[in-house]
């Protein structure tokens, strides 16, 4: 008589749980990221200034399938999965985010500095010194590993630009910058899954080329275009 399968054998053969990414910001950029992640089989928790109950209807329209959560809970599931949180809030609202909310995560800085935007003092000081804003964010959110990505493509282009079924030559290239090589690699893997061709440009300081006044901003790029500027 054959033995019945052990519980451990059954659990080991079960399909792995889908990864989870958190998104801070439910505006046009945040929901565009969420839609692409969900299509790629990545679960999404998303938070904004509105409480989860008030956010539900908005997400049903703009990011169906995304789970609304409180901002302070944004990393709860991600820490045990992908470890990735995407920061997609206006920079003028950054002081409203408690750094503890994203501690021990990979924090993807998808933000940009816009003209006449009223910035927190610590960020305005970096702008005045002509430093890449991601470096200031890395100081502010010191318990997270900050990676610059997803900021140099317009949210209106995001859905159509993501091509997970295409080989690399048929994908839009996106730059990735970060001081932590492991964190940078995690983000590149996520971008690949979403349907892009991720290209490392080096450290956070190198991310300056991805900002609104830089050569990569809001341009449809191939890998060789980005590598021309990589350090």
UniProtKB/TrEMBL annotation:
Keyword Acetylation included in the entry's annotation: no
Keywords: Oxidoreductase
Record-annotated Pyrroline-5-carboxylate reductase catalytic N-terminal domain positions: 21-112
Record carries keyword Nucleotidyltransferase: no
UniProt-listed Pfam families: F420_oxidored (PF03807)
InterPro entries xrefs: NAD(P)-bd_dom_sf, P5C_Rdtase_cat_N, STEAP_metalloreductase
Annotated protein name in UniProt: Dinucleotide-binding enzyme
Provenance organism: Nesterenkonia halotolerans
């Amino acid at each position: 008589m054959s033995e019945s399968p052990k519980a451990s054998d059954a659990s080991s053969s079960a399909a792995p749980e889908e990864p989870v990414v958190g998104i801070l910001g439910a505006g046009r950029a945040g929901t565009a990221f969420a839609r692409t992640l969900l299509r790629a089989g990545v679960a999404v928790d998303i938070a904004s200034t509105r409480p989860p109950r008030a956010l539900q209807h908005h997400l049903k329209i703009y990011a169906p399938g995304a789970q609304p959560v409180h901002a302070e809970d944004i990393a709860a599931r991600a820490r045990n999965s992908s470890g990735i949180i995407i920061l997609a809030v206006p920079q003028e609202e950054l002081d409203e985010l408690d750094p503890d909310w994203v501690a021990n995560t990979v924090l993807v800085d998808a933000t940009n500095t816009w003209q006449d935007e009223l910035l927190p003092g610590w960020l305005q000081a970096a702008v005045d010194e002509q430093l890449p804003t991601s470096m200031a964010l890395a100081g502010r959110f010191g318990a997270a590993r900050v990676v610059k990505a997803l900021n140099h493509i317009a949210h209106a282009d995001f859905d159509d630009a993501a091509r997970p079924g295409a080989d690399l030559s048929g994908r839009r290239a996106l730059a990735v910058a970060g001081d932590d090589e492991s964190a940078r690699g995690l983000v590149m893997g996520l971008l690949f899954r979403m349907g892009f061709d991720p290209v490392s440009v080096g450290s956070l300081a190198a991310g300056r080329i991805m900002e609104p006044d830089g050569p990569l901003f809001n341009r449809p790029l191939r890998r060789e275009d980005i590598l021309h500027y990589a350090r």
